Amino acid sequence: MTEETLEKLRILTESAKYDVSCSSSGTVRANRGKGVGNTVGGVGICHSFADDGRCISLLKVMFTNYCKYDCAYCINRRSNDIPRATLSVRELVELTMEFYRRNYIEGLFLSSGVARNPDYTMERLVRVVKDLRTVHRFNGYIHLKSIPGASRELVAEAGLYADRMSVNIEIPNETSLKQLAPEKDFHSVLEPMRFIQQGVLENKEERRHLRHVPRFVPAGQSTQMIVGATADRDRDILRLSSALYARPTMRRVYYSGYIHVNTYDSRLPMLMQPPLVRENRLYQADWLLRFYQFKVDEIVDDANPDLDLEIDPKLAWALRHPELFPVDINRADYEMIVRVPGIGIKSATLIVNSRRFGRVTSYHLKKMGVVMKKAKYFITCGELTSPTVNELHPENVRRLLVPNPRRKTDDRQLTFDFGGDAS
Amino acid sequence: MTVYQFDRTLDGLLTAVFDAYARRSFPDILQGTDAPLPLFYDDLHAVVTDDAKAGRVWRALQKKLSAEALTCVTVSYLSELPELDMHLFRYVCKAVDSPVSIERNFADEDVLFVVNTFRKVRYERLRMLQFLRFQKAADGTYFGMMEPQYNVLPLAIGHFRDRFSDQAFLLYDRRRHYGYYYDHGELTRVSFDERLPHFRSGKLDESMLDKDEMLFQELWRTYFKAICIRERLNPRKQRKDMPVRYWKYLTEKQ
Questions:
Q1: What angle (nearest 5°) sits at the alpha carbon of residue A182, between those of residues A181 and A187?
Q2: What is the reported pLDDT for A420?
Q3: Which residues of chain B does A48 touch, with a Cβ-Cβ cutoff of 8 Å?
Q4: Contact B150, B79 (CB under 8 A)
């Protein structure tokens, strides 16, 4: 552990940071006396937040950023002239353990460029996680990237030590993927996903008969898609996510607003700013799919292939379906109440519980944390007097709810243009 | 107007409930003994905390409420908020009076207040698990200090004990002047003379640190800087998720 490690850590972190996933949830790993650490499950623990506002839960680092592939969107592509480094297994293990003991991290997120061949790289990744679990008895969270093209045996071994494994799809349709990453196709991504899924399902079956069979990737798998690098619509992205969620082990799909890292590549769009609003809307739609029992066709369809950037997807859905509103807070099902814009899972649970004791009024709703500014057009609860979406018409409600662009200049102030910079 | 004074413990509050039923006079104001009295009042009652009385009220509560709701009562009390006292007092009275459990009637102001306070305390506990940082001392003890908003150390200590069971550590709440020292399965509550320089700054002196400690702190700071994507800078969100009041003891923010 020297100054040299410091430089390597910097290089390999810079290379790894475009991976979005950083969750440490989905599984519980108890510390039975002799080990180090535990995994608490539930919501996971974020130990810090970087200047870009993203959480730091795991030590997200690459094993090496040498890569034999040349994917257009990737910072680590072969033809990029960036500093390259490789951490040794010992360095990685020591870093993880020492950071963990100081309560800096929940565990390790290890990925890697493909050096030499997939099996060579995967074998080294497996050695790191095996060392952590068996030699150091580490019970923290381990998220391991499965290298596309790695052999099934290596994936099967990795799964015994990792909590979560992931393979990134990156580009939501195969033609664009082939265009941007000539060495990859959907098969090379879906194949390792299938390995993981089969491993988990077989393991589940085995554990039904024998209690002491070690768990295999207990926190399931995740994947990531880049948003804005290709011409794909939100409809394509969300349909793919929804199909992935239908698979038994897929827990999370992450969306990563494309950042124009390889400016010289003409196959990619020139983006001044990463599409952050679109990314945010996609996450909102993702939440609707996972927690609000929405079907993907309700959120985007052929008539509306893209999400509305000005209003959130639930509000957009509600405005397209005014016939379902207003909802009576005191009678409607929970499933319908969570579909009201401005009411989330938490406040819907509070409402359903409280109305057994008496009528719930708008005063109560406000106290419970319902966003009445939105919800008032879509509900009735006895005394509420505001007009509903049907009386006002959806377009007008939309106009009321879209945030006004803040005026930059003051009309009352006379300004002179002196030309040039007056600063 | 009736004023009850009590010692601001949970047992004191439960005794106050007992006294109120015994005296058939319910307080309009419930306050700590050191808080200034209102200008006008008719009746002042000083509650003397009594374990037997508090125990009777607690057993009555146990009959009426579920285990989760009882946890909610005890945990919310760790918030030490003065405005919680009256809400919790009425919560207990309502729970005892009602033939069915009132714990899920969130339309009731007192129930909602107690539940929301419970949520805040749980969140502060999570913050402690997130933002506590250990420094390794030369003798191998890990030292961590914080100033949590609420008294959450008792709720968080179990987590640290389980997670770092093979290392000796000292966890200190600077605001409430106590902490826990853990070594090989034994947990001791400790208080120190806080005039020592490292209690004031939260940083151990370099002579007291393990020889590699500075290097690992530097590594962590390097990592923290490198992980940020500069095209996406968002200091507002950073401060929302990691409020500035915690930065004082964060290694990466030094």
A1: 85
A2: 55
A3: 130-131, 224, 242, 250, 252
A4: yes
Q: Distance between CA atoms of A173 and A238, rounded to whole angstroms?
A: 12
The pLDDT of residue A407 is above 70: no
- Peptide bond just before B99 cis, omega within 30 deg: no
Give the whole-angstrom CA distance, residue A128 versus residue A94. 10
CA dist A234 and A250 (Å) reads 20
**Inter-chain residue contact A38 with B162, CB threshold 8 Å:** yes
Cα–Cα distance measured from residue B33 to residue B30, given in angstroms and rounded to the nearest whole number: 10
β-pairing, B43-46 with B29-32? unpaired
Q: What is the DSSP string of A353-384?
A: HHTTTS---HHHHHHHT--HHHHTTTEE-SS-
Nearest to A61 by CA among A117, A102, A116, A104: A104
Characterize the bridge pairing of strands B142-146 and B169-173.
parallel
Q: A338-375 pLDDT, tens per residue?
A: 999 999 999 999 999 999 999 999 999 999 999 999 99
Say if A277 is an interface residue toward chain B (CB within 8 Å).
Answer: no
Q: Which of A157, A63, A44, A49 is nearest to A107 (CA)?
A: A44
| β-bridge mates for residue A165, sequence order | A144, A221
Measuring CA to CA, how many Å separate B31 from each of A143, B88, B114? Answer: 51, 12, 17
Residue A406: pLDDT band by 50, 70, 90 thresholds? low
**Average pLDDT of every residue of chain A:** 90
pLDDT at A422 over 50: no
> CB of B141 within 8 A of CB of B168?
yes
- Residue with the bigger pLDDT between A403 and B139: it is B139
| Alpha carbon distances (Å) from A78 to A59, A66, A71, A96, A183 | 24, 7, 8, 28, 12
DSSP-based three-state secondary structure for B184: coil
Name residues of chain B where pLDDT drops below 70: none
What would the pLDDT profile of B32-73 be if each residue is shown by its tens digit?
Answer: 999 999 999 999 999 999 999 999 999 999 999 999 999 999
Task: Give every strand in the sheet of B29-32, ordered side by side.
Answer: B29-32, B2-6, B43-46
The interface predicted TM-score of the complex, written ipTM, equals 0.93
Q: How far is CA A36 from CA A107, A142, A214, A335, B100, in A?
A: 11, 13, 18, 43, 46
Q: How far separated are the first and last CA of chain B, in Å rounded?
A: 52
Chain B contact probe: residue of A104, A141, A347 with most B CBs at under 10 A: A104
Distance (Å) from the C-alpha of residue B199 to the closest C-alpha of chain A? 18
One-letter identity of residue A152 = R
Please choose, from the candidates A234, A232, A227, the residue with its C-alpha nearest in 3D space to the C-alpha of residue A259.
A227
Residue A249 phi, psi (nearest 5): -110, 0
State how far residue B28 is from chain A, nearest Cα, in angstroms.
23
Burial of A178: CB neighbours in 10 Å, binned 0-12, 13-18, 19+? middle
The DSSP code for B45 is E
Write out pLDDT tens, residues A368-381: 999 999 999 999 98
